[in-house]
Amino acid sequence: MGEIAKLLEAELVGDPAVVITGLSGIKEAKEGDITFLANSRYLALADETLASAIITSKDYSQPLRKPVVKTENPSLAFTKISEYLWPQGLYHPRGIHPSAIVGKGVFLGSNVSIGAHAVISDGVRIEDNSVLYPGCFIGGESVIGRDCLIYPNVTIREKTKIGARVIIHSGSVVGSDGFGFVNVDGRHQKIPQTGIVEIQDDVEIGSNVSIDRARFDKTVIGKGTKIDNLVHIAHNVVIGENCLIIAQAGISGSTTIGNNVTLAGQAGLVGHITVGDGAIVAAQGGVTKSVPANTIVSGYPARPHNQAKRLNAYVSRLPELYKTISALEKKVKRLEERK
Amino acid sequence: MGEIAKLLEAELVGDPAVVITGLSGIKEAKEGDITFLANSRYLALADETLASAIITSKDYSQPLRKPVVKTENPSLAFTKISEYLWPQGLYHPRGIHPSAIVGKGVFLGSNVSIGAHAVISDGVRIEDNSVLYPGCFIGGESVIGRDCLIYPNVTIREKTKIGARVIIHSGSVVGSDGFGFVNVDGRHQKIPQTGIVEIQDDVEIGSNVSIDRARFDKTVIGKGTKIDNLVHIAHNVVIGENCLIIAQAGISGSTTIGNNVTLAGQAGLVGHITVGDGAIVAAQGGVTKSVPANTIVSGYPARPHNQAKRLNAYVSRLPELYKTISALEKKVKRLEERK
Amino acid sequence: MGEIAKLLEAELVGDPAVVITGLSGIKEAKEGDITFLANSRYLALADETLASAIITSKDYSQPLRKPVVKTENPSLAFTKISEYLWPQGLYHPRGIHPSAIVGKGVFLGSNVSIGAHAVISDGVRIEDNSVLYPGCFIGGESVIGRDCLIYPNVTIREKTKIGARVIIHSGSVVGSDGFGFVNVDGRHQKIPQTGIVEIQDDVEIGSNVSIDRARFDKTVIGKGTKIDNLVHIAHNVVIGENCLIIAQAGISGSTTIGNNVTLAGQAGLVGHITVGDGAIVAAQGGVTKSVPANTIVSGYPARPHNQAKRLNAYVSRLPELYKTISALEKKVKRLEERK
After folding, report:
1. Are C181 and C189 in contact (CB under 8 A)?
2. Which residue of A9, A262, B35, B296 has the smallest Cβ count within 10 Å?
3. Contact list, C216 vs chain B (CB under 8 Å)
4. What is the DSSP string of C279-294?
5. Which of B217, B270, B288 is nearest residue A28 as measured by Cβ atoms?
6. How far apart are alpha carbons A21 and A29 in whole angstroms?
7. How far apart are CA A76 and CA C229, in angstroms?
8. Domains delineated in chain B
9. ipTM, 2 decimals?
10. For B8-30, what is each residue's pLDDT tens digit?
């Protein structure tokens, strides 16, 4: 415990000699584990947990029978301990596997690893320390920055630009053609999609995500933005920095998203609109027009969240409303029949 | 026909000498085919179909001009005939393809097949008779039970545990990192996802499905549960036995699903809730709180299905309601104007 | 400019000597670019754009300070210029890569290209000029027509029939098993999916799309239909010609779609229904019954779009309605209390 408190530069209340052998959630913890209290939903479990120690926020004051480490940010402390207990990269491929295909004019920085059966096309550039798992395809002239991690069976099409420390999970596709057609005599004729995709530093992309290349110019995922699984990002979409795009959300073509925006799960946005900084689209929200900064919208068609909730409450009360009106009609009839 | 009735241990009404050469749906059937009546929607087609024979339930009594095989369960009978006419596995790879990469310390049971360009990482264990198609990636120390079938280009990340008789379709990803970040000074810092995924016996997983590994502990898909295409299952989700999770449904982190639950297409569930045994979420339902056992919910936000239908009917009648109220207002005005 | 006007067989208003070096959107254009006015939303930008020339429709009459090329169809003109400036196929693999696995009895037409680590199973037929990128899997006895383009890591299962000029983007799966089970004593038993998928000429399929094979007979994608990313198409679905199926839409089993139908993003359709020619399902529409030809439906459950919009407006006015009724109740009470 003393060692962990030191690692976290945090205050320890309790016995520094307690030995920690694992790290776990507050419900699943067993003896020897350290756990943490980040979500107030689980406050009641602090005394029940089998964990041998607990990480809490600094202002946690309830007395506990086990050692407590008080930190500014319990979740961050969890991350530090996790990295301390489980060194990352144990399962990463190392070196260039002999079955990998590396094209002409490829530049590989120092300490790059490329897994079995990966295909690196002509003219690709991969910076220092990046790791590509087996089965990845990197299209011609794409650039992958340093310290990137590309999981198995990812496809990155030609001329894609990827920054540093980007993580892309399996099955995702970056740079597929945008969905663009022009109707000529009743048939849909393909519009060439000659632009690119730019993924900036510190972006993480979940599994089975589709990000289309621009018709011209570029589709952009801003620095530090995190994208969950099965998300669709159409051509010419521009997403700002530090956004959270949750699973199965979809963004139509040429829509622009500000910084620090959250699109919750299964949200859908039409094309050619703008979502302002700090805005939140609730789960399954269907956004049909631009969203101002720092607002929350929900429902279909998406409305300001407070309004949507109020309308929803009114809809719930419709059965009584119909009864009220029926009663009123009878009363009015009786009043009309009074002489 | 006689042979088929014998295979099904079923009653045959009609000529046992009729020769059956194929098996088809009631609408598509041609002469020589046997077809079946499982869905009452198609009752009217029983006499029109070109099929040479029909499988029906035991209580089917309408006289038909063609041979009828009466069984307890026509769909099951269909399956038996189908397996009899078309032996499975005709297209499966056989043996270990020389281009497959098999790591150190890998255990392969008897009769395991591994297709071209598949990658089996160090320490993996694959039990008897399992078949891996080309292009699959199995991460370090994962375990695949007996009689499994893994289709092309599936990714299974490290330390995943898969039971017996599991089928996984192409493009699916099991064990990608959960979507977990902690906000430190406005930036989203990754929380290591150190748990695993456990897929129990007899599970089937469709194509392009994403199942994330747990933050710690495990994400669980219970015995006999069937998952359709493009489904998202977040970290630490626990799904019970014999559930049906239909296409494009999504389940957020740490939600627990009971046994025999159905999530219809495009349904979405928030995190940290519970869905009771036997519950049903209708298509596109947006579930924001726990669902009791054996209830049906629908709509957004999801409500008990009968209530949702009633509210929906009331909403449909709003135009007349506004007229009614307008008329009432006039009448009341007239009443007020009466001396 | 003169050269471009000639290529387009179009009228040039302005200086034919202006030199065009690029092609861009009206907002992103810089000096030297030609751009185009196809969407009336951008009319105001025609004088502001930095582009050196503009393509407009024939009826565009506003005077501009830069050369204007007037054509019947500015988008089509754009496509022609794009193909002229950027020849297609620069990044396609050429020839049969030595690491590709080609099975027994495979027929390859002239000028077929197969990328690294692709796997072509026994009995496959691939017609002239088709290009398969690395990591593709083509199942036994499948047929791929001429001039097709299959991007990396696509999976095409056995016996699939693909027409000419079909494009399939990365991560898509054609011919995975339909989701079919029969409940036997509380367990879901798999129904063999013995049918196929037929993709007709000129179809384009986005990335990470799932198209299931039929239970029997076939799942059909009609000539000229275009499918966006992450779309789910269940077993035995039949889609007509020249449809647009936008991202993340899902179609349940045995539903039939006519010609020229549009399903907007995230739309969902139940099984066993029919959508008539020319119908449109709006984004996120949840279709629970058949849709007549040439109608627009939206919302959940999907209603005729005009009705849905009207109901939506009425719902927005519910807060005033409740106030109106409350006022009416008071007035009626006062009337009742009179004498």
Report:
1. yes
2. A9
3. 23-25, 28
4. -EE-TT-EE-S-B-TT
5. B217
6. 11
7. 36
8. 2-85 (3.40.1390.10), 101-306 (2.160.10.10)
9. 0.89
10. 888 888 888 888 877 777 777 88
